[in-house]
Specification:
Number of domains of chain A: 3
CATH topology of the largest domain in chain B: Aldehyde Oxidoreductase, domain 4
Strand content of chain B: 15-25%
Order of helices and strands of chain A: EHEHEEEHHHHHHEEEEEEEEEHH
CATH superfamily of the largest domain in chain B: Aldehyde oxidase/xanthine dehydrogenase, molybdopterin binding domain
Largest sheet of chain B: 8 strands, mixed
Helix content of chain B: 10-25%
Number of helices of chain B: 18
Distance between the termini of chain A: 49 Å
Strand content of chain A: 25-35%
Helix content of chain A: 25-40%
Strand order of the largest sheet of chain B: 3-7-1-14-11-12-13-22
CATH architecture of the largest domain in chain A: 2-Layer Sandwich
Radius of gyration of chain B: 28 Å
Largest interface: A-B, 21 and 30 residues
Shape of chain B: globular
Strand order of the largest sheet of chain A: 4-5-10-6-7
Number of helices of chain A: 10
Number of domains of chain B: 3
CATH architecture of the largest domain in chain B: 2-Layer Sandwich
CATH class of the largest domain in chain A: Alpha Beta
Structural class of chain B: alpha+beta
Number of strands of chain B: 32
CATH class of the largest domain in chain B: Alpha Beta
Radius of gyration of chain A: 18 Å
Oligomer: heterodimer
Distance between the termini of chain B: 53 Å
CATH topology of the largest domain in chain A: Uridine Diphospho-n-acetylenolpyruvylglucosamine Reductase, domain 3
Largest sheet of chain A: 5 strands, antiparallel
Shape of chain A: globular
Chain lengths: 271, 811
């Protein structure tokens, strides 16, 4: 549905935080807009205010330092990441997930921060951030707090961010050697689609991690895989961490089966 | 109309001439109704039903009427009109009762679309929800609610259809040939199975859109994204009791139709709003979501086939029952049922046949024509069935097909004799099989299989389709010569992407002997300017309009010769011509240019000769008859286009995932007028068919609400889903009455893609799939003999389309 709303584009974080607080009920934050705008059009939201964060200084900054790692501003798009040489060299897993997200046109608009702040169970960026040990820097009018992404998601379309807060940065820690990994996403068509299930498997400094999308109310990280676990033990551990449902995209039974198959494939492929 | 001239001896026909609309389309210059704005134009929005079936208790639009910019609000109660071509069963807006989720209940026109939306939100509709009938098999039960209790009072085309008042059956088509009981008794094997496919959406790039102005003196102007301007006009005039001279329909560029824009659509809705708003033009453009539930879809089908086979593998008897789910309105679905009924065996000879095909009303979005007109759906059943029958009797499915394929001398199910000119399905099958190395794996494929662990399989499927149209379908083409001797072609067949205008242009140039550059086909169609064409449907456009174009060209030349004879003082029989002039054959220097005669010739003294040069061509289908309603016998087909696909697939048995490695498609097009356009149709239709094969389909909840009413969960394939390798061929068995021997191929490329894939998957893995689509999960379930997830239409137990048991020996 098209209707009139006020578009705000604050140029400072303080102003943004004040606006977010003031319009906690009748406003929404705009980054890439690839989720917000369809929701406005479809009448899911009836907003009076749309608050764009892209005018903030450094919103689109994508920086790397050996000390801090990769730091993404809230307006960094998926294609910004894919085009960044450092990201490709040091965080191939991040780029693998990014590449699976929607279509090229949407990746031009969609942001990494939006993809996780939206907290969809089928977020494609969440698995990478979970496996890479990324943290969310959350800002409000009163200050800043940092939490790991393992504690960021609170449920379907819910995060731990409070009214008046926004995701200021995503920090992916530096690593002595890049995590190896691959994201397997089951789709209905070869092109742009939401995942039926997605499994990222990584191996870094001898430690295996799995992150699963579209299989629980939130993206899920599985860290309790031990070096000596055999294939079926690993599959069991991953399945124990998820709770897929049956819906129009797939049955629960098939989702569980495919998660198991993907985990097995990743155990073989990611060495 | 067939010329025995070889393609190599023709100047334009058979060549890949420039397609005039491409640059305009690619640059965005082409004007669509979506682009159009008229002075004073209002925008319409609709209040739609959230229920599958409910009584409309009360509509309160007082708040909406008071909102700014609102110029007209219309409800069904004030509209006593019914619309329809074959069964006149649909109103412009629901009246008294809503019959499907998404049905239009109230319409609003306002100065802006936003104001119209605000008004729609302010309208309050009180419903009394009634139990819907959702699955078409449920709708046949004695105690099923009736979707149309007044069916007995509706008008319908009695020569072709048989509604059953007091039931949900909108039409019962029968076909009886030979002695089925006797033939079954003599059969060595009897195999019975059931197949199904869900409703799907056409998904034209341009959604349905129309602008209508109901002017002074009831003069109505319609601009519409429609396939058939004259049928829009005709049905519109019937509905409103207007003279055809009062209504003008203009169709500019159309962004795809695929059958969904055949017949009449949203034009009457805009018209009643315009009338109520005092004659201001009203535009309505459907949203993508409205395409899925307000506008029609393709009917679902359940098809049960029982086949008796002789000891030598010849089909001797076949009993067929088709259950077509028309949804809430059956106007078009009844004709899909009829056309599928007479073709229901596919391109195979069935000496003894018994068919019942039912069109069944349910409380769901309604079905209409969709590329293939039922043939995509029932060929899924027929060509999977041929595979399973062959398997059951221990014969190679390809050999079984060849053994039973139609050939010269065969009788179709309606008793039509196949001749050597009809087309050659056997050759199509052989070419398709050859292109995929059917029957064994190449060394390369074996190596690939070893490397990936995925199983490679190959399958073929054949197809046939004749145009489904009234037996007296006619068209016309008018050529007008311009002052410079170039020629304007006017016809009301529309080109909504299929490329027919390019082919007509080639045909006109060929017959006139003019360079292609001198011929322009006017892209916009206009009932006030163009001569009549029935509809742009059925893959009949090239054949009928191509013939009319040949006749128009001959008429133009004849008229020009008459004038030239007068000017040159010679016998017309002594004249010849080239692209510029007419000359006396034995005195070639004595000539007169076309340009000097085009709008009337002036002699040196100023006297006038001739007059504007015009050529008229009319063509009407010949030799067709209505089918006998009791036994289905008769002659329904102006031509049969045959074809076949071969598919190579690799399947992961562990997960059901698969990739189509190659598809080879072959069609007997008679003569390819423009080979690149044939190839475009072949690939476009193939991918559309692949989409319905791998993922498309409507999913409803138990209240009849559509659960996937958008692209989020109603996916269609993209270029990324194209098979790794695509080959397209034509076989050219000339159609004696086709223009330069050509026959249509617009719909055929979508037919039988799904069964070819199903057959290949079965060959690779043994998975027996009887239900479309074949999602990875469906393949996985079939491999594990798990019940298919029947989430297409409710969870009704009878909705589960289970396949019958294995083949059993007779007796």
């Amino acid at each position: 549905m098209v209707y009139e709303f006020r578009y705000l584009a604050p140029k400072s974080k303080a102003k943004l935080c004040a606006m977010l607080l003031e319009h906690a009920q009748d406003g929404k934050l705009l980054a890439g807009g690839t989720d917000l705008l369809p929701n406005i059009r479809n009448g899911v939201f009836r907003l009076k205010y749309v608050i764009d964060l892209k005018q903030l200084p450094g919103a689109a900054s994508l920086k790397y330092s050996q000390q801090d790692g990769l730091i993404l501003g809230p307006a960094v798009t998926i294609n910004d990441v894919l085009r960044n040489r450092t990201a490709r060299r040091l965080y191939p897993v991040l780029c693998d997930c990014a590449h699976e997200l929607a279509s090229h046109q949407i990746r031009n608009r969609a942001t990494v921060a939006g993809n996780v702040a939206n907290a969809s169970p089928c977020s494609d960026m969440a698995p990478a951030l979970l496996c890479l040990g990324a943290t969310a820097v959350i800002r409000s009018a009163t200050g800043q707090r940092t939490i790991p992404f393992t504690q960021f998601f609170a449920g379907v379309k819910k995060t731990v961010m409070l009214p008046g807060e926004f995701l200021e940065h995503i920090i992916i820690p530096p690593a002595a050697s890049p995590a190896a990994g691959r994201y397997l996403k089951l789709k209905r068509i070869a092109g742009h689609d939401l995942g039926i299930v997605g499994v990222l498997g990584t191996l870094q400094d001898g430690k295996r991690r799995f992150a699963v999308s579209s299989a629980a109310p939130t993206p899920v990280l599985v860290e309790n895989v031990a070096a000596g676990d055999d294939e079926s033990t690993v599959v069991k551990k991953v399945l124990a961490a998820v709770s897929p449902i049956s819906d129009v995209r797939s049955s629960k039974e098939y989702r569980e089966h495919m998660i198991g198959v993907f985990v097995q494939r990743l155990l073989q492929e990611v060495q | 109309m067939f010329d025995t001239v070889k393609t190599s001896d023709l100047s334009h026909v058979g060549k890949n001439g420039h397609r005039e609309d491409t640059i305009e389309k690619l640059t965005g210059e082409a004007m669509y109704v979506s682009d159009m704005l008229l002075p004073g134009m209002l925008h319409a929005q609709l209040k739609k039903s959230p229920h599958a079936r409910a009584k409309i208790v009360k509509i309160d639009y007082s708040k909406a009427a008071a909102l700014p910019g609102v110029r007209a609000i219309v409800t069904g109660d004030e509209l006593d009109y019914r619309l329809g071509l074959y069964v006149v069963d649909k109103r412009i807006l629901a009246r008294g009762e809503v019959r499907h989720f998404g049905e239009a209940v109230v319409a609003v026109a306002a100065d802006t679309a936003e104001q119209a939306r605000a008004a729609v939100d302010a309208i309050e509709v009180e419903y009394e929800v009634l139990p819907p009938v959702l699955h078409h098999m449920d709708a046949l039960k004695d105690d099923a609610p009736l979707v149309h209790p007044e069916l007995g009072s509706y008008d319908y085309m009695a020569a072709a259809f048989t509604p059953k008042p007091g039931t949900n059956i909108a039409n019962h088509t029968k076909l009886r040939k030979g002695d089925v009981d006797k033939a079954f008794a003599e059969s060595e094997w009897i195999i019975e199975r059931e197949y199904s496919c869900p409703s799907v959406q056409h998904v034209p790039m341009e959604t349905h859109v129309a602008i209508v102005q109901w002017g002074k003196g009831d003069k109505v102007n319609i601009w519409s994204s429609a396939q058939s301007p004259f049928t829009v006009r005709n049905l519109f005039c019937h509905a409103f009791g207007l003279s055809h001279s009062q209504v003008r329909v203009q169709v500019p560029y159309v962004g795809g139709g695929f059958g969904g824009k055949a017949g009449i659509g949203i034009e009457p809705l805009c018209a009643v709003l315009s009338r109520k708003a005092g004659g201001r033009p009203v535009k309505f453009q459907a949203s993508r979501e409205e395409e899925f539930s307000l506008l029609p879809c393709r009917s679902a089908l359940t098809y049960r086939i029982k086949t008796g086979v002789s000891a030598t593998g010849k089909i001797v008897a076949q009993h067929m029952t088709m259950y077509w789910d028309s949804g809430a309105y059956a106007d078009y679905a009844v004709n899909v049922t009829r056309a599928s009924g007479f073709s229901a065996s596919g391109p195979y000879e069935i000496p003894n046949a018994w068919l019942d095909a039912y069109t069944i009303y349910t409380n769901k979005p309604y079905g209409t024509a969709y590329r293939g007109f039922g043939h995509v759906e029932f060929h899924w059943a027929v060509e999977r069935h041929m595979e399973l029958v062959a398997q059951a009797i221990g014969m190679d499915p390809f050999v079984f097909r060849l053994k039973n394929a139609l050939r010269p001398g065969s009788l179709t199910m309606t008793g039509e004799e196949i001749t050597e000119h009809t087309g050659n399905v056997i050759k199509c099958l052989e070419e398709a099989a050859k292109a995929i190395c059917y029957g064994n794996l190449t060394d390369e494929e074996k190596a690939r299989q070893k490397k990936t662990g995925w199983k490679i399989g190959k399958g073929v499927a054949a197809l046939q389709k004749a145009p489904a149209m009234p037996p007296f379908t006619a068209t016309s083409v008018v050529l007008k010569m311009n002052e410079d001797g170039s020629v304007l072609v006017n016809l009301a067949l529309t080109d909504y992407g299929q490329g027919t205008y390019t082919s007509v242009r080639q045909i006109v140039a060929e017959r006139l002997g003019f360079p292609l550059e001198k011929i322009k086909v006017a892209f916009e169609s206009d009932t006030d300017r163009d001569p009549y064409d029935w509809q742009t449907v059925a893959s009949k456009g090239l054949l009928l309009s191509g013939n009319a174009a040949i006749l128009a060209a001959e008429d133009l030349i004849k008229n020009a010769y008459a004038v030239a004879g007068e000017i040159l003082h010679c016998n017309v029989c002594d004249l010849g011509h080239d692209g510029d002039k007419i000359f006396i054959k034995h005195h070639p220097k004595k000539s007169v240019s076309f340009a000097s005669m085009a709008v009337g010739h002036a002699l040196p003294n100023g006297n006038g000769v001739g007059g504007p040069l015009i050529g008229v061509g009319r063509y009407i289908a010949q030799g067709l008859s209505n089918l006998n309603k009791e036994d289905g016998q008769g002659n329904p087909a102006i031509d049969w286009t045959y074809g076949a696909h071969g598919i190579i697939v690799e399947v992961c048995e562990e997960t059901g995932e698969f990739h189509v490695l190659k598809i080879a498609s072959v069609y007997d097009v008679g003569r390819a007028i423009h080979p690149e356009i044939v190839r475009g149709q072949a690939i476009g239709g193939m991918l559309q068919g692949l989409g319905t094969a791998i993922c498309e389909g409507y999913i409803y909840d138990q209240q009849g609400r559509l659960l996937n009413p958008s692209f989020t969960d109603n996916k269609i394939p993209t270029a990324k889903d194209l098979p790794l390798e695509i080959e397209c061929f034509v076989v050219e068995t000339p159609q004696v009455d086709g223009p330069y021997g050509a026959r249509g191929v617009g719909e055929h490329s979508m037919i039988s893609v799904a069964p070819a894939l199903g057959n290949a998957i079965q060959k690779a893995t043994g998975a027996e799939i009887m239900h479309m689509p074949m999602r990875f999960e469906d393949v996985w379930r079939a491999l594990r003999h798990k019940d298919p997830i029947d989430n297409w239409i409710t969870k009704s137990p009878i909705g589960s389309c289970r396949s019958a048991p294995e083949a059993r020996p007779n007796g």
